[in-house]
Amino acid sequence: MTAPIPRDIPDLPAVPSPPALLPSPVPAAAVLPRVRRPLTAVYRLLVASTALAAVIVELLLGSPSRALAHFTVQSGILLALVLTLAARRAWTARHPLPTALTGAALLYVVISGLVHHLLLANTANPFALPGPVSPSAPAAPTVWQTAAGHILHTAVPIAAALDWLLLTAPGRLHLRQAAPWLLYPLAYLVFSLARGALLAPDAPARYLYPFLDVDRHGYRSVLGNALLLGLACYALAVLLVALDHLRPNPVRHRSKTGFRLQPPVG
Question: 3-state class of 3 per DSSP?
């Protein structure tokens, strides 16, 4: 015979749960050693020096006030500063600059190059410039000014794009950055219209770009042109973000950490 089952079974003690582990993220720099990139630093310094030299030529041989008022010159100065800082960080194995800054500098020089070649230098376009390539020359530019104009409008945008494509890690640009990048072109539009309104009607190069010439087109057409150009710039910014997430990684490094993961045996 078996013992009768008691009616009241005492409660069993609760099984203690394991203590919750607090998340402790380890930064990648604590595991992976930082890598110096001297060739990248040298390339960026060369591009920055070239852009700065072209800007100096425009300032010395032309009208400094007119040169500094151009979007091309301003974006070239910004790119030179950004690439100089990026070169220092690549040389000293420090973290790269924020992508909000580097992406903006890239976008502005690309906008400058595309606007020049598609609108200003294209004789079939109604907004083509009848004058010189140099931003600061009111008449026929010198050889140095012509070379500086080609550098700022063609060589610098291509060099900046190559630095982005070949010397930076992908997937770091974000779509939320595209709209803030347009704040500077918007501020430049306000500056350009205010500058033209404050200058005398007979002042040379009162409006620096034909599509912003209020005297010829009126404010309604100018603002319409600015809106279309702004939408195109936003589309270009979105395209840069998309390409940044689709391109391969050209700077992948194999780190030496002292141990190696092996596949399971059996």
Answer: coil
Lowest-pLDDT range of 13-27, 58-72, 179-193, 235-249: 13-27
Which residues lie closer than 8 Å to 52 by C-beta, 6 or more apart? 76, 77, 80
CA 191 centroid distance within chain: 21
How do residues 215-224 score in pLDDT, each as one tens digit? Answer: 888 999 999 9
Q: Residue 161 burial (CB < 10 Å; 0-12/13-18/19+)?
A: middle
- CA–CA distance, 226 with 212 (Å, rounded to integer): 8
- Could you give the count of Cα atoms lying within 13 Å of 63 in the half-sphere of its Cβ? 13
d(CA 89, CA 201): 48
Confidence of residue 33 (pLDDT cuts 50, 70, 90): low
**DSSP assignment of 88-113:** HHHHTTPPPPPHHHHHHHHHHHHHHH
For residues 136 and 66, the answer to whether their CB atoms sit within 8 Å is: yes
DSSP letter (8 states) at residue 13? P
The H or E element spanning position 160 is helix 156-167
